[in-house]
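User:
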Amino acid sequence: MAAKPILVFLHYFGGSSKSWNKVINLLSADYHCFALDMAGFGHEPALSEPSITLIAKNVEEQLDLKEIDDYILIGHSMGGKIALQVAADLSQRQTIQQMILIAPSPPTVERMQERDRQRMLIHPDQQQSETTVKNSTVKTLTPDLFSMAVETQLITDQHTWNWWINEGINESITLAAGKITIPITVIASTTDPAVTYEMITDDCMPNLPGQAQLLSTAGIGHLFPLEDAEWTANCISNIAQSERSTLRSV
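Assistant: Predicted structure:
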């Protein structure tokens, strides 16, 4: 019997590895799933001077420690931008089969309204965290999921939080992204209020390698794994199976 494919998950800004729990529960019968906390989020210690490159290096070190190889890398929002840097760093090692980017922060600049930036810099704050979750979603979250989404924001390292809002979203990694040769699928929602569909089509896709493909949906906001775990899991599985079939047929 062939070994189950491996999926590695990187969470959104203000999330943690727990943000993927429902999706992983739906996929675990057919895949080995590993969700990582990025530096400064969840239980992963913060970096003294965070950057896209250094957070990606931290992800790579975690993968090495877990001896994870030959996997599909899945990044959501901020995790999508970090995933691109990881894939660029590891392009010579050929350890990543393909990437799935869900509502990714663009490899150039993630546009943010100044009023939202100033509001989000009031951290940690229960009311502002609740507002951020509400502003990011279209579907109503269950009370448990809403509480988790708020809590993962509140425990995010203060310095890392401010760095992303003030610097990380403006850090361009287009040169690094251009090195990537593996298949890339971008999943985006036309009703995403955070990383809008316009940002995906205008800022993200033109700055990804030519093999990147866009898969669109509607009726989901920015927090895909929390708003519709079943759709997200099915979508990931369909993409993974399609690519594996292509590889086998070559």
